Amino acid sequence: MSPGVNDRHARADAADGAEREHYSPDRTNAAGPMNDTDHRLELLHRRYVLSFPAKRAALAQAWLAFVAAPDDGASAQELSMQIHRLCGSAASYGYGRLGARACAADRLVGDELAAPRHAGVARVAYFEAAVRAVIDELEGAVADDPA
């Protein structure tokens, strides 16, 4: 890659305020020497892992809001959105168990919101185990891979 391209990437990284390591041709991974693409994938993975505490906090906050008002459409939609995001991203970054739990919760919540069968505390009880499994899995993923 030409120096101009690397300079643009360095400026882009600095511009978004994130502190990041930059590609070095002498870095290696388990498969051998890393190229620029390997390094970028490693940085994306690290950024995703570092987002787990915020993802867990957002999901926990959405859950608490839902528990406080289980028949409120806005709190139910926020809970659904937080879970759906994890369902869509976790497996792509190598977190299959987190993705599976999030997708199971996503189906449960999505189906209930599309055709409500529960109300009030019964709705909370219906979602609780699936949502807590996702929250717990996020907590475990942070502990297992602190980046």
What does this structure look like?
By secondary structure, this protein is an all-alpha fold. Helix content is 72%, strand content 3%. It has helices at 3-15, 36-50, 52-68, 73-89, 96-114, 120-144; strands spanning 28-29, 32-33. Strands 1-2 form a two-stranded antiparallel sheet. The chain is elongated. The model is unreliable at 1-26 (pLDDT under 50).
Topology:
Blueprint: H1 3-15, E1 28-29, E2 32-33, H2 36-50, H3 52-68, H4 73-89, H5 96-114, H6 120-144
Antiparallel strand pairs: 1-2
Helix pairs in contact: 3-4, 3-6, 4-5, 5-6
Short summary:
The chain is 72% helix and 3% strand.
**Mind telling me the C-alpha Rg?**
19 Å
Structural class: mainly alpha
Largest sheet data: 2 strands, antiparallel
Count all strands and give the number.
2
Percent in helix:
over 70%
Oligomer status: single chain
Question: Ranges with pLDDT <50 over ≥5 residues?
Answer: 1-26
How would you describe the shape?
Answer: elongated
Cα end-to-end separation: 27 Å
Q: What is the percentage of strand-forming residues?
A: under 5%
Strand order of the largest sheet: 1-2
For the residues shown, what is the average pLDDT? Answer: 82
User: What's the helix count?
Assistant: 6
Question: What order do the SSEs take from the amino end to the carboxyl end, as H and E?
Answer: HEEHHHHH
